[in-house]
């Protein structure tokens, strides 16, 4: 079931595609899948110059970060999760990493509205569960809008937490 559709024409890879005349338009689509965990799943959908559609799953759960911000930040979150596991003497192949169900941790006062998929002012933080070798590290990712449609990101080891092993 589709829960919401909003324009994503401010998202970097959509804008770049439009300028290169490869993409006509882009949207963020939030859906809930029947017979699943009923959590929201967010997609970035684009229409190419010939009229065809493409869809990328952005994340499961809630996030204020768009596809470009998530893509730019994801590898740093995996690296930090690996550091946390290594310090706990758990060896793992980082190529097996997957992102769990994300959630918004905090929206700071002054956070600007979503404008075509981007935010131009304010800060927020999110919890990204990174799952490696059956263990979950919750990585706190802080975003601060840069005023130009992107964001500065902050990921610190002291804000990452290794969850107990599933029993």
Provide the low-confidence segments as ranges. Answer: none
Number of strands: 9
> Using only CA atoms, what is the Rg?
17 Å
**Overall helicity:** 10-25%
Number of domains: 2
Reported for the largest beta sheet, the result is: 5 strands, antiparallel
* Assembly status: single chain
Number of helical elements: 2
Order of helices and strands: EHEEEHEEEEE
Give the overall shape, derived from the CA principal axes.
Answer: globular
Alpha-beta content class: alpha+beta
Average per-residue pLDDT, rounded, comes to 95
Concise account of the structure shown:
This protein has 167 residues and is α+β, with helices and mostly antiparallel strands. The protein has helices at residues 12-19, 67-87; strands at residues 2-7, 23-31, 41-48, 53-60, 98-99, 103-107, 123-132, 135-145, 151-162.
